[in-house]
Every structure is written in C-alpha cells, then in structure tokens.
Amino acid sequence: MGFGQILSRIENVIPKLTQSEQKVARFVLSVPEEVMFMSVQEMASRSLSSSASVVRFCRSLGLKGFPELKVALSADLAQDQKSGYYDLNKNENTTDLVDKILSNAVQSLRDTVGLLDTKMIEKTAHDLYNAPAIFAYGVGASALVAEDIAQKWLRLGKNVYALSDIHVLTMSMANAPKGSVFIGISYSAATKEVVQLMKFAKKMGLVTISFTGFGKSELSELSDYNLFTSLAPEAKVRSAATGSKHSQFFIVDVLYYVCASIDIETSLDKIQRTSDAIQDLKQFDTTDRSNREKND
C-alpha cells in the first residue's frame, strides 16, 4: 500500500477510529511537521493517549507502525502542491465550480493511488482471469460500478453477471462452478444487501472481493480480497456520489488492465471479436432500417 496523501487519509478515516485513535489522529493533523521527529512515547504523551493507541492508529491507516507513519508524513509534506476537497457555494461561479470539481476528482484519485496494494491487485486479477463466472453487485451509484465491471470483463470473454435482482443473483451464485468470483461493491461497506450476498458467496465457496471505502468493516472482514478507495468527504451538494465514483471506476480500470495483460494476445483477440460483433450489429441495424424505408 502506498504512502501518498496520508493527511487526507487521516482526515477521512477519523469517523471509523476508536476514541483513543481519534485523539492521535487529531494531534497528527494539528502538527504533522513535529510528529515526523517524535518517538512513539512522546507522541502518546503529547496526544494524551497511549503507545498502544498510537500503534493501533497506524495500523488502522494500513501502515505497519509508527516509523511508516513518519515516512508517509514526510512524503506528504514534501509535495509542493496538494489538491483539496471543496464543497459548492451559493451562486457559484461556473469557472470556480469547474475548478472545484476537478480538484475533488484529482484529490480522490491521488488518495486512492496512495491506498493501492499492487500485490492484492495482481492476486485479484489472476482469480478473475481464471474464474469461470464473475458476479458483481452494488446498490445505487455502486450499481453503475458493477455494470462497468460486467462491460469490461465481457469484452475479455468472461461470463459476468451484474444483476439488480438480488434473488435472481442468489440463484445464479448457488449453481456457480468452482473458482467463480463474487464482487461486493459498497463505498460505505454497510449496504445490507451487499453484506448478505457476501455471506452467501462465502457459504457457496466463491472467491470473494470487497470493493469499499478505506477502513475495516464487516464486509472487508468477510472478503478474501479487499480493494479500497479513498474515503473522500462527499460535498453537501451531492450528485451521484461523484468523488467515490471516480475512485471506484479508476480501480476497476486498473484491475481490468492487469487482468488483460496476463495473456495480452488472447485478450486483444477477444476484445477485437466483441468490437467486430458490435460493428456487425450496427451494420445489420442500418441495413434493416434501409429495407424498411424502401418497403414503406
């Protein structure tokens, strides 16, 4: 997992931390320049916590310990420029609005890259490559991500199901061949239907992948693999979970390209076949429409 954008990660993960870890988090955010030169004991004393809380806080961030936190802070503070997250204001100037939306998207992607675990991506991609069937499920904005997964892996010749009906999806998973994969998508990691399907997938022996915002959850604990996106603060004026959606589509793209590269020649051949099939369909539609117009 990368170190990048650690301060933003801390800001956004605070609600998921214990009270003692929150004390540490707020202290780090208040004086990150000083934390880089502290010992664990000094950090515990200054933040009115304990050494154990400091270590737990670091692990909650996905770091191995306090030394890695100091390295991450050093890398973050060394950056000359840092995008941020911005909310919308009343009577917002369109030019300012464009800049804010761009900044939010860039920051969300940077934070997500900082969370990337390349080994996890590679393992997940290989299981998807070998899977006889892939099932993806999400609700609301996450349903769009499930559909994107289906579109991409269908192009690679996989049997992919992104069904919105949870009962039909459950029936399909009940008869899934060994090695099949279920991807549960929930940015909050708390969507009831996704958690239920994840439990069922585990019961059926499917390989399970959770696709959530960063942090421990029941969904991530149930999964064989966890793909985390940044916990970007959504704007009060919110439209279709914009920040989280950008990050989720980015991870899907990364996973897709890694999977396709496992056997690039075969992948390119299958992608070309699907492209040709769509072109044939368009040609057939054009010819059929022309014939109807002549008959009319």
Automatic annotation (TrEMBL):
This is RpiR family transcriptional regulator. PROSITE patterns: HTH_RPIR, SIS. InterPro entries: Homeodomain-like_sf (IPR009057), HTH_RpiR (IPR000281), RpiR-like (IPR047640), RpiR-like_SIS (IPR035472), SIS_dom (IPR001347), SIS_dom_sf (IPR046348), WH-like_DNA-bd_sf (IPR036388). GO terms for biological process: carbohydrate derivative metabolic process. GO terms for molecular function: carbohydrate derivative binding; DNA binding; DNA-binding transcription factor activity. The keyword Transcription regulation applies. The keyword DNA-binding applies. Keywords: DNA-binding, Transcription, Transcription regulation. Signal peptide: none annotated. CDD domains: SIS_RpiR. Residues 4-80 form the HTH rpiR-type domain. Residues 124-265 form the SIS domain. It comes from Paenibacillus solani.
